[in-house]
Amino acid sequence: MSGPLAGVRVLEIASIGPAPFAGMMLSDLGAEVLRIDRPVASAPAVPGPRRLLSRGRRSVALDLKRTEAVALLLELVEHSDVLIEGFRPGVAERLGIGPNVCLERNPRLVYGRMTGWGQDGPLAPAAGHDINYIALTGALAAIGPHEAPIAPLNLVGDFGGGGMLLAVGVLAALVERGASGAGQVVDAAMVDGAALLMTMFYEMRNADTWTVSRESNLLDGGAPFYGVYETADARFVAIGALEPQFFQELLTVLDIDASASAQHDRSAWPRLRNQIASAIRTRTRDDWENMFAGRDACVAPVLTIDEAPMHPHNRARGAFIAGEFGWEPAPSPRFGRTPADGLPSQVDDGEGLTQLLSAWDIPDDLVERLLAVQAIT
């Protein structure tokens, strides 16, 4: 692997959602990530021919209910920089791989924990998913049409507020370890991360510039110059003409007669919205993209996930990479001096276990013994 994290070794205890996303990010940045899977019979089914969230990692299946498998994991801990897990609170401790045990084996280890509700608090042991975590932070209530909130995919809790927060925490702990020489526990919770992502909106609410009524605010579809409009071919364009110069350019291209001072006159918003909607409905989505090309009006076509990889800008930047089974988002961000080497490949699970674990300084005879008792596959 190449990239800014080349030479960093990460153990990822397999789970779903945010922890694999954090593992993918670390792998994309050049870390050597070894995923610890469950035995095949108990592993959760993952649809599709290629698990994109698993890209770039080798894997080994350990039955962590067996003492031999736990012993091997702790051996791997001694040769690792980072461990990330996504168990409910207390599960890792019951398995014998909690942070106290692991940090005793390797005091330099960064132990990353990913949960929904956090390691403590009254909801810590409760089940939940993205929509539940963002519901408790004010995020869900702010998203959607006036009639009711909508689920905004699982981007806010699982991935932005969860996996990315975990990755940032791990990186911060690695930087601190460079000064102190000591590892530590990173407690990342999706409910905390989703709340953090809402910082600007809490700031606006504190300043009395945000209401709790959906579609009534500047950035929630309330403003006619910041929203989505249907085109003549039943597709959509996204308009984000917040600044007055962009708003004026929008009006010019749409041939709408309205003064710039009307932009923030809320009493004029319903009429302005109807004017913009009527104008946008006169042309197709692609026509509008051509009309606004080179014009600073902050208008973009709303692309599907099938269309996005083919857009000229995305193609020019290599934002998506053509894999064997379809398009994949490329690793990001980009680095000038230590770039990642393209798209990390996914290696078949269980391939070359002895050689794999030998590279992690595990003796061959130990691997053979574990294979013999099926503690490892």
Radius of gyration: 25 Å
Summed up, the domain count is 2
Q: Class by helix and strand content?
A: alpha/beta
Give the overall form. elongated
CATH class identity of the largest domain: Alpha Beta
**Total E-strand runs:** 11
CATH-scheme architecture of the largest domain: 3-Layer(aba) Sandwich
Residue runs with pLDDT of under 50 for 5 or more positions:
none
H/E series? EHEEHEHHEHHEHHEEHHHEHEEHH
CATH topology of the largest domain: Rossmann fold
CATH homologous superfamily label of the largest domain = Crotonobetainyl-coa:carnitine coa-transferase, domain 1
**Spatial strand sequence of the major β-sheet:** 3-2-1-4-5-6
Question: What average pLDDT do the residues reach?
Answer: 92
Share of helix among residues?
25-40%
What share of residues are in beta strands? 5-15%
Task: List the main descriptive attributes of the protein structure presented here.
formyl-coa transferase, domain 3, 11 strands, 2 domains, alpha/beta, 377 residues
